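Backbone-to-sequence.
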């Protein structure tokens, strides 16, 4: 199996681009059916979800909007240390159906933070769609509504996911070779 090198680490293909597109198509079909008539607003969480969002939205046939946000980290003066804030949300999401687009849901901490902060703007409902889902690592109660692919609890790169900033442009998804 062909290995690639990113920085100091080796990776091999885990999921081919064909399989990724099949997973995205399944999610798109479900969303097209379940959210028809609701004019959802998709919120792409940068940087990782940009390729997933682009490919998914091409397969969405219902009326919808898309917006982009980022989770910015800063170190507050609180004892908890790192605080993450949602930035870039300029559309009014009040009483709207919102679909959060994530690259990967791992422990669920990121998604939980986003759901909490979006909740302040009083959307009608919040759905979560992710390209990848690590069920073994996930330990939150929030429902992951749409997952294109379930993956093992390993470190992955490609299709938007990075290692040290690199590898996001890869068409397939790669796993770290131990
Ligand atoms: P969580 O908060 O633990 O669910 O992690 C979510 C975030 O961690 C993702 O949006 C990614 O940025 C990053 N992440 C988690 N697992 C991986 C991985 O296997 N490869 C690259 N980034 C990951």
């Amino acid at each position: 199996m062909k290995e690639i090198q990113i920085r100091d680490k080796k990776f091999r293909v885990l999921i081919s681009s064909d399989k990724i597109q099949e997973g995205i198509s399944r999610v798109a079909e479900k969303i097209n059916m379940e959210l028809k008539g609701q004019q959802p607003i998709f919120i792409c969480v940068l940087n990782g979800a940009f390729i997933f969002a682009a490919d998914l939205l091409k397969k969405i046939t219902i009326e919808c909007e898309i917006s982009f946000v980022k989770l910015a980290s800063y170190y507050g003066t609180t004892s908890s240390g790192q605080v993450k804030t949602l930035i870039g949300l300029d559309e009014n999401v009040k009483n709207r159906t919102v679909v959060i687009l994530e690259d990967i849901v791992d422990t669920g901490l990121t998604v939980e933070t986003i759901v909490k902060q979006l909740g302040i703007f009083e959307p009608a409902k919040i759905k979560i769609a992710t390209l990848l889902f690590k069920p073994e690592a996930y330990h939150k109660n929030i429902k992951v509504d749409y997952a294109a692919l379930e993956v093992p609890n390993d470190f992955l790169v490609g299709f938007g996911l990075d290692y040290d900033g690199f590898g996001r442009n890869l068409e397939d998804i790669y796993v770290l070779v131990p």
